[in-house]
Amino acid sequence: MSDDVTERLTEVFRTTFGDEEISLEREMTADDIEAWDSVSHITLIYAVEEEFGFTFSSKDLGALGCVGDLMDIIRKRA
């Protein structure tokens, strides 16, 4: 699972959570990253928007259940 979106998103996650060892998998959720709480989630969303140049809609945000959902939305919107 290595493409431009995955590589860029991985860097956003690593920066947001301060962990250079993060390796994204589609099935990952907040439960899989210790530092991923409600505050860091907001930071992550803003960082993703900045990296990929779009703003998430409320519908997009409501559809997020795992990293794979995030990747799918990015691919559709970016």
Q: Any idea of the CATH topology? A: Non-ribosomal Peptide Synthetase Peptidyl Carrier Protein, Chain A
Low-confidence stretches: none
Cα end-to-end separation? 18 Å
Strand content: under 5%
Strand pairing plus helix content: what structural class? mainly alpha
**What is the makeup of the main sheet?**
none
Question: Helicity range of the residues?
Answer: 55-70%
The H-and-E topology, N to C, reads as HHHH
Q: Number of domains in the coordinates? A: 1
- Which CATH architecture? Orthogonal Bundle
Q: Care to count the β-strands?
A: 0
Output mean pLDDT: 94
List keywords for this structure.
single chain; mainly alpha; Non-ribosomal Peptide Synthetase Peptidyl Carrier Protein, Chain A
What does this structure look like?
The protein is mostly helical. The chain has one domain: Non-ribosomal Peptide Synthetase Peptidyl Carrier Protein, Chain A (Orthogonal Bundle). Helices cover 58% and strands 0% of the residues. It contains 4 helices and no strands. The longest helix has 15 residues.
